[in-house]
Amino acid sequence: MSLSEQIENPFLPEPARIVRQYDLIKDHRFFQIRFIDMNRAMSFDYVPGQFAMLSIPGVGEAPFSISSTPSRPGILEMGIRRTGNLTRALFKKKDNDIVYLRGPYGNGFKIEPMVERDIIIVAGGLGVIPLRSILYFVLDNRDQFDELYFLYGARNPNEFLFKNEFFQIKAREDIDCLYSVDKDTTGDWTENTGVVTSLFQKLPKIDPQTTTAVVCGPPIMYKFVIKELLKLKIPKNMIQMTLERRMKCGVGKCGHCALDHIYTCIDGPIFTYWDTLHFRELI
Ligand SMILES: Cc1cc2nc3c(=O)[nH]c(=O)nc-3n(C[C@H](O)[C@H](O)[C@H](O)COP(=O)(O)OP(=O)(O)OC[C@H]3O[C@@H](n4cnc5c(N)ncnc54)[C@H](O)[C@@H]3O)c2cc1C
Ligand code: FES
Question: Is the whole-model pTM more than 0.85?
């Protein structure tokens, strides 16, 4: 089968090599994966917030957010939590082993409403995995965006993902990073202690008319983060959120992710707060 036929068939997984992997925290691992076909690797076009279906033949397939940025093509990065059959098998893979990928799927973040505006990225726990993509996308295209605020909260310092890289970013002058843990279980945490919403009081004065927010975290977090964003008077359609649903096909065929007339694998996983007011079951 030719490459163009493969790309046209959205169901056909393509072989990809695990280039590098390391543990982020217990049971959470970072993977760098590259399509075997270098043309495909370099032309795989996605926007931050999209996901790919990763499979291991004979084991299964599941959606995972793309954590890398399209501004650094060639390698796809994913942060994966060991939960069930597929992820257990994946964690047994060695560097250079082959897995299969298809995608990219989903709508991804709308970049246009962020251009030449201030951006607040709010991540809680595992939610930082998809947001890492938009974070690096903005940093790599820094002149197209105004102020950048990155608020990230984890339960404790041992669950803080990407610690080294995020503390390196903190040293940059073109981003304001605010980090928090609910509880300092180590005694050597130097940043804020408290839930992620406690970071909002550390933000400088925000102009809501020129600000876009992106949010991803555990379901409980949305309610409180949105409350803070609304207090800042950020318009409801300028709050973009990643909302995951159980998915199987990823391409609007199986109905697993359907809510009313929308398929979250196609119309999502990114929705604005405005969207969620019309589809309350989304959160
Ligand atoms: C759009 C999208 C993006 C995702 N991105 C990531 C990611 O970046 N990193 C990551 O680790 N996982 C991500 N997931 C979740 C991942 O797809 C599931 O955890 C997947 O089921 C793991 O497969 P498994 O066979 O190992 O576990 P399974 O055997 O399928 O499930 C193991 C356990 O996880 C629970 N579970 C399965 N799916 C979900 C889900 N969607 N939400 C909550 N609990 C679930 C099951 O109830 C069960 O308890 C994403 C899901 C979606 C829909
Ligand atoms: S996952 Fe099959 S329709 Fe969305």
Answer: yes
Residue nearest to atom 3 of ligand 2 (CA): 252
Cα-to-centroid distance, 104 and ligand 1 (Å): 17
Is residue 3 over pLDDT 60?
A: no
How many angstroms is it from 249 CA to the middle of ligand 1? 14
Given a contact cutoff of 8 angstroms between Cβ atoms, the answer to whether 214 and 134 are in contact is: yes
| Binding site membership of 250 for ligand 2 (Cβ less than 6 Å) | yes
Residue with token string 């996308």: 137
- Rounded to 5 degrees, φ, ψ at 237 are -85, 0
List the CATH code of the domain at 112-242. 3.40.50.80
Max Cα separation, the chain?
A: 57
CA distances to 43, 65, 115, 147, 238 from 210, in Å: 33, 28, 10, 10, 9
- Pick from 156, 149, 244, 229: which is nearest to 192 by CA? 156
End-to-end Cα spacing for the chain: 41
**Using alpha carbons only, what angle is made at residue 252 by residues 248 and 255, rounded to the nearest 5 degrees?**
60
> Helix, strand, or coil here: 144?
helix
Q: Which two tokens stand for residue 154?
A: 């984890």
Q: Please tell me if the CB atom of residue 233 comes closer than 6 angstroms to any atom of ligand 2.
A: no
pLDDT tops 60 at residue 2: no
Could you tell me the distance, in angstroms and rounded to a whole number, from the CA of residue 127 to the centre of ligand 2?
21
1, pLDDT greater than 60: no
Q: Which CATH fold would you assign to the domain 3-105?
A: Elongation Factor Tu (Ef-tu); domain 3 (2.40.30)
**Domains in the chain: boundaries:** 3-105, 112-242
Nearest Cα residue to 213 out of 191, 202, 228:
228
